[in-house]
Amino acid sequence: MKNDRYTGILMHPVSFPSPYAIGDIGDAAYHFIDVMNENKVSLWQVLPLGPTGYGDSPYASRSTFAGNELLIDLKRLYLDGYLELEDIMSEPVVTERVDYGRAKEIKMPLLRKAACVFLKTEKNSSRYKEFCSEHSYWLEDYALYQSLCDRYNDSRWFSIWPEDLRNRKKSALDKAKAELKEEMDIWCVLQYFFFSQWKSLKEYANEKGVRIIGDIPIFVAPDSADAWTNTKLLKIDESGEQEASSGVPPDAFSSTGQLWGNPLYRWEEHEKENFSWWIKRVSAALRMCDIVRIDHFRGFEACWEVPKGEETAINGKWVKSPGEKLLKALAEALGDDLPIIAEDLGVITPEVEALRDSFGLPGMKILQFAFSVNDSGELESGNAYLPHNIERNSVAYTGTHDNNTTCGWYKEQSDAVKDAVRRYFECPDDQVPWQMIRHLLMSNAKYAVIPMQDILMLDENARMNVPSTCGSSNWSWKMPQWGYYAEGWSRLHYYNKLYGRVVKK
């Protein structure tokens, strides 16, 4: 009988050890895949891979189709002949956390240099022409967008750029393309570098029996190439201003809700085009990854729409989305068995669950959400996130990139919750994190995914993100070099074998 129980690690490439202030998709990534393979881990989950903007959140990318240029491996560019040895032999920049600003200072001049060398020697190569042709539906717009961001030193096309460019007047676009041709060529080549390197890495992972889980944020960033080039598909008026913004309503975590600020979709326009933009978007993600997670999946059923000018999300309302029609269009284009994970956390209604289940999509279960206690301090055993209640068609996590590490989470719990956790796992405090991992892998969930920080037993200082905050600690965790050799790997290997999560190719 074929085994279909899988273990995964959540680890974004920026977090790999690196001499350039940010991780990349070079040797460290290949080494990580080797370690996963040795320890029978068959899934590698990443965050969105697009180029980040202000705040460096991968969920606020400058493009939903492009790759993050800072993830390009400089060593590979040297081996390909686009850089000199001295370019990659400079003194390493040792930073405790990812430093995006420093990474740009170090890497972008070298990336531009490599691109210029490529343009002199291989611009007319068949491989490059094929790449540009394959990605023509977004590549030129992205290259022009990035070039204009550099020209105006600002990505806010809707307020900073000249009106004729804001409105994409043809004469203005033609003039900008002519003036910025050399810059645009560089951005196109950098995307060629990224996709070539990522393709090689993905092929290596698949050969080693590791599949990659990607991530698609449901919304696009307001200051993105996607918003600038698709205003017809978004609730953006003729002047470039948003008519409404995305968010979530007030809840137990926030009395004012969360105002995300992303533009909402004009779903009727998507329907007119049979959701062609979404089909391109998901198709592109599935060329890069084997499975994709749709962030804020509940937005396919209804979105929390906040009127223009509101400072909080309180006065928003739920507006229906054509999720069934969209998923049917995706299934018709990509096949009935959609390799999609539904991020179904938050305010989930029976309608959202029905939409998810009607297409057979696995939902998410978070163990950190499992330990609710009643007024008497007793564990509520019916909690759907407790290991014994997790359904098979699920992706179970100890926590996600938005949660504290499991060590940090346990430390901040009340005495009543800690007591419930200890009694559930029948273990002392110092064994709780690994008991959570063990029970996660023991559970009935088809997929079990563990953040790398939990394998290393790291505390709250290793947290990846605190939602609704913007600071240098977000998106900047970097794995220490010893993380490749940590004791936790062998323990994970043992549990994978014990609980039938060893996948044979």
UniProtKB/TrEMBL annotation:
Keywords: Carbohydrate metabolism, Glycosyltransferase, Transferase. One of its GO terms (biological process) is carbohydrate metabolic process. It catalyses: Transfers a segment of a (1->4)-alpha-D-glucan to a new position in an acceptor, which may be glucose or a (1->4)-alpha-D-glucan. It is an enzyme of class 2 (transferase). Its EC number is 2.4.1.25. GO terms for molecular function: 4-alpha-glucanotransferase activity. Pfam families: Glyco_hydro_77. Belongs to the disproportionating enzyme family. This is 4-alpha-glucanotransferase. It comes from Candidatus Ornithospirochaeta avicola. The gene is malQ.
